Amino acid sequence: MKKPWRSRKVLLLISILIGFYFIVYAQNDQWYASDTGPADLAEKMPLSTHAMTAQLKPNPGELVVIDSEGFIRKSMHANSHLVVGIVSTKPAHTLRSMIKESVPVALSGLVPCKIISENGLIKPGDLIVSSSKPGYAMKAPAQILPGTVVGKAIGTQENDEDVVLVLVMMR
């Protein structure tokens, strides 16, 4: 007699070890898994006219803020309360995909994020906020300001500038 719980434990262990996530389903007493990698739910948000230049246009993995007109642009200041998210690299699903002159901003899920060690190296569990380097995030300070947190680090920062997997959770 097969024990399906063993299959689930093996899949969970593999996903933890290699850093990917699986969609698991059963069919005729057989377990199947689909490798999806980190994924997020994103929404296309219109770019600010100032963000149309190559220098200010946000790239995948960069933090974005909302401007006074309700459009987004690359973050420019540390601990900004205007932060709205991280530009998605590979969304599993995108809302408002028909909007022109826009970028997909992760609303929830796991997203690679550009990080700088401005406030110390990041380890799993650290809260993430905008840094003074345009588009980059940093470890949140001890005294967190309301509305500045964009997510929680899942990965570990190895270098002064790095890319770390972040669970998007606006606070």
Q: What tags apply to this protein structure?
A:
171 residues, mainly beta, Virus Head Decoration Protein, Chain: A, 2 domains, seven-stranded mixed β-sheet, 1 helix, 12 strands, globular, disordered N terminus
Structure description:
By secondary structure, the protein is mainly β. It has two domains: 4-35, no CATH class; 40-168, Beta Barrel (Virus Head Decoration Protein, Chain: A), CATH 2.40.300.10. Helices cover 9% and strands 39% of the residues. The chain is built from one helix and twelve strands; from the N terminus they run H-E-E-E-E-E-E-E-E-E-E-E-E. It has a seven-stranded mixed sheet, with no helix packed on it. The N and C termini lie far apart (48 Å).
Instruction: State the CATH architecture of the largest domain.
Output: Beta Barrel
Enter the CATH topology name of the largest domain: Virus Head Decoration Protein, Chain: A
Radius of gyration: 18 Å
**Ends apart, CA distance between termini:** 48 Å
Number of helical segments with 4 or more residues: 1
Helix/strand/pairing category: mainly beta
The figure for the number of domains is 2
How much strand? 35-45%
Helix content: under 10%
What oligomeric state best describes the polypeptide chains here? single chain
CA-based shape: globular
Q: Determine the CATH superfamily of the largest domain.
A: Head decoration protein D
Quick one: CATH class of the largest domain? Mainly Beta
Report the strand count: 12
Which regions are unreliable across 5 or more consecutive residues at pLDDT < 50? 1-23
Mean pLDDT, rounded to whole units? 81
